[in-house]
Amino acid sequence: MKEWVKRYAFCLLGLFISALGVAFTRGADLGVSQVASVANVLSFKFDFMTMGNWLICWNCFLIFLQILILRRKFRISQLFLQVAFSFLFGYFTDFGVWLFAPICPKSYVLKLLVVIVGVAMVAFGIAFNVIAEAVMNCGEAFVQAIVDTIHKNFGHTKIVFDVACVATSVILSLIFFNGELIGVREGTVIAAVVTGFMINFFVKIMRPGLTKFIKK
Distance between CA 190 and CA 192 in Å, rounded? Predict the structure, then answer.
């Protein structure tokens, strides 16, 4: 029991750090991570809801798709956990947007630096979730649902999912903003390319110590 408490505590910590990373990246106005990009575009067009609220809607949509794909194989326990974590992630993101609001880099170099730092924060947070092995985020759980159904490689399916998220964001932006890219730009591409490498790096250096602490 004590071990599971530690696992969920690390998941919550990872969720909080990842959400702050998304919010920090948004301040550069060069786009956010691929999974959050759709919600980011929607928050610019329909600003009666915050980015965090749109993230909640997007994640709940991914949960709904999981249910359609897995049907009876979908575990009810995962429904409650993923919905709860989706709401927390949304609230944490809105808190981060408020916290980092004063950070408005002007030069393009500083904007790129903010993107890189934000992406590193996202990867660092995800590393906690990977090591804790308690709850998958909605994006990865959706990919896993597809993998379990069509029996394809997780990594390859994840790439297709990420590309689909970015493509959807680009299409929505072009439609909503008369051909302009708003809410999804090169920062999104950077996140899509380097996040996986950063996650692997953090997991490699963090796993021995965290695993020992969790099982202690």
Answer: 5
Are 122 and 201 spatial neighbours (Cβ–Cβ below 8 Å)? Answer: no
Bridge partners of 9, per DSSP, are none
Q: Is the CB of residue 56 less than 8 Å from the CB of residue 145? A: no
Q: Using an 8 Å Cβ cutoff, are 123 and 175 in contact?
A: no
Helices (H) and strands (E) in the chain, counts: 8, 0
CA distance 165 to 55: 13
Classify residue 71 as left (phi > 0), alpha (psi -120 to 50) or beta. Answer: left
**Residue 44: helix, strand or coil by DSSP?**
helix
Residue pair 115/36 in contact (Cβ under 8 Å)? The answer is no
Q: What does the alpha-carbon distance between residue 125 and residue 106 come to, in Å, rounded to a whole number?
A: 27
- The one-character DSSP state at 29 is T
What is the number of residues in the chain? 216
Task: List the one residue out of 174, 184, 151, 139 whose CA is nearest residue 31.
Answer: 184
Q: Are the beta carbons of 54 and 42 closer than 8 angstroms?
A: yes
CA 103/CA 128 separation, integer angstroms: 26
The pTM score is 0.89
Structure tokens at 67: 């249910």
Partner residues linked to 201 by β-bridges? none
CA neighbor of 210 nearest in space, from 150, 127, 140: 127
- Token digits of residue 199: 């996650």
Span 22-75, pLDDT tens digits: 999 998 888 888 889 999 999 999 999 999 999 999 999 999 999 999 888 888
